[in-house]
């Protein structure tokens, strides 16, 4: 079956679901502990997965396949890219549970159940090897997220929950129709097989657009990003973490798993669209982030900008671009998750997200200020943090395809430095906005336990990213090879120019005097 | 007419004899024994199901080819009879206060008999007899609460518009008969030929329109919200469930068996009705505050989705998958609808008043968490959100449309699903996000009803996928038997 001898992926999906059902029936405190233990066990299983993943081995590992009906299979299996995204999910989930430990007091059992179901569905999305199974996991995530935003969200939560649900649903249903067409044509729903299938070029365009409708919303790309700031701002802290940390990555994963390998010609054909939208998003959303007065909204807009660098990197069609995009995805998952946690920590103390109400936190909350600074720097992409590795690689990749796109996406880093540093300045430095701000206590043990692991991984990924890149390298190479026939020529080709004809009066080198 | 004919229609015979016997009991013993009559009527349904199982035939004719007994009719009858039992189960408690009358179960029996005849009809006359038997019982049922003017209005409205639809149907039948010289489905199919004349097409249009009224497809849906709102809730549950199954099955059989050559003509009509029903059902529900009206629009929209499957059956190559998707959708729709109405029937305040206003659901999670969960499952399932089981039939009808090269139909269906999701979400929002309303809905008695809700909710939740294999096999066999 696989190198472990038991269906580990199914176990990782079923375990949280069972725990979720249990959580519904037990007391609040028991539900908290059940959820924490389950997510930690799942993290342990994830580590086992990573440890036993054979780097350079077969592309699909830990595969399971049980026929349900006709072409519909319970088919699971992961490659390196899925492995890293699963790791991200199982790593962030215990932190999310911990972040909600005290701030959630209403309907705790249901809350924990929603998060556990989310965890199962996220693993399912990254592990599914059947189109319809993927769709089920992908779409099912809407239900718990709708409840999380709608029940435990902020003041304007109803509007945000509707917007989130309906936006995503519209995109997904068009993708479903495309999937049905693909299954009808090829008579298989097996994702690895479909990744090798050459669809007619004409059909590819339509299929690509249908998938794009779904992934662009999920990602989110400009101009269909507007659900994200609303959802982020209204969701409870842990909801924002999981939304920014993992759910957005589903869009990028979708491009990697479906759009690029299944429709390479259409991807090349519509590259301009992705690049165009990414360029607009980088500049526009960074500028929008600059003027936000709400911390969560600012980080939400910065997410859109970072995701635009991911899409640009993915569609660069080369090793650096795609690897960089993957690292940005992982890094952004950690960093924006951590930033939302930071916001949540001070929100729990002052109950406002208004930037102007803070200030001078480095005086009374030095530990917080230190960690917040680290994540701010990682978000900007400072060398030594994970953000740098990813952004550098993806911009190199983009540059090789189009120097103009790289130039404009590069401004995103400058603007990012602008809004993040300004945010940091207004929160951590200067004078406290009031006595209540001045009296805020520093991080307690629980908050340390939430932020420290993320900080460690951010630094690890920034200093030595090889363990993260190694499992994915072979898959990226395979993807680049699949894209190669369709890949257009980049405009940034360095060519050895022909030597200039020396001018008649130019002095010759080597000491020989002219005749 | 031979003895074997009667053996073939054994389930119907059980219903006829049982119904007549109970009618006599009801007439002589009065309303004192209504509870017993109700239980006996349920027993008659059970007997009909047993008879159906014993006499099931893969394909046989009875009464000189006017009645067809095949896997298709058997499948539909199982659904109808099962729905009948549920409808009987939920009635007595509803009528508890005003007094449950013995005629109610008898009328349900006769209506179901009409439906059983409808799904077995292979002749225009059988079709009409079945339809009218069902409709006449339904008119009476709609106005069953004599003291409530809304109920009388519903009954009258249903009757007047139903009579108009019957008229159209009969006119169409007469045209078909006039131009083909026969009323049997096979005879019509033979006479129709690849190039039907104008008279035949007129006949086809009228017959399809008459039946579209019965399934409340747009533009013949106008009666639905009013009748659903006005009729007593158990009756509304009945209207939304079994008769829909019967009428859709009948329409499917008529289209596939009697009018295979008319496919290009009816395919257009059905595709239009599908689009119109989905969109109007979705948009019309947005402004509704009354739960029953909302469910009426929901049933219109769902019929639209079912019609996608039927429209796809117009293409010879995709026919089997398309008819299978119709049957599968009907099955899941039946469970979702009955479950929703069972849940709505639980919304009874301590003083016995039924709450139909959506605001009454506010904060239901606090007072009745189990019920709120069940309603949420039904709503997400009706909206077709995976992993709930309501997703699968939607997938099947979309697949049928794509296989039949009717991609736009599937895309419009997808868009209509999103619009529809809006109002399903609103119910969930009211129940789960809003603060509790003043009125609570005490749990009193009715363990059976709550059990039924639990079973229905479990079925349309993820657990339904466990039964996907047998259900697909059964609906595929049923679909194959009419092709």
Brief summary of the model shown:
Chain A is mostly helical and 515 residues long.
Summarize the structure in words.
- The complex is a heterodimer of chains A (515) and B (483).
- In chain A, helix 1 packs antiparallel against helix 4 and helix 11 packs parallel to helix 14.
- Chain A is built from 22 helices and two strands.
- With 515 residues, chain A is mainly alpha-helical.
- Chain A has a two-stranded antiparallel ribbon.
- In chain A, 72% of the residues lie in helices and 3% in strands.
- The model of chain A has no long low-confidence stretch (mean pLDDT 87).
- With 483 residues, chain B is mainly α.
- Chain B has 21 helices and two strands.
- In chain B, strands 1-2 form a two-stranded antiparallel ribbon.
- In chain B, strand 1 and strand 2 form a beta hairpin.
- Chain B is globular.
- In chain B, 60% of the residues are buried.
- Classes of the chains: A mainly alpha (515), B mainly alpha (483).
- Chains A and B meet through helix 5, helix 6 and helix 7 of A and helix 18, helix 19 and helix 21 of B.
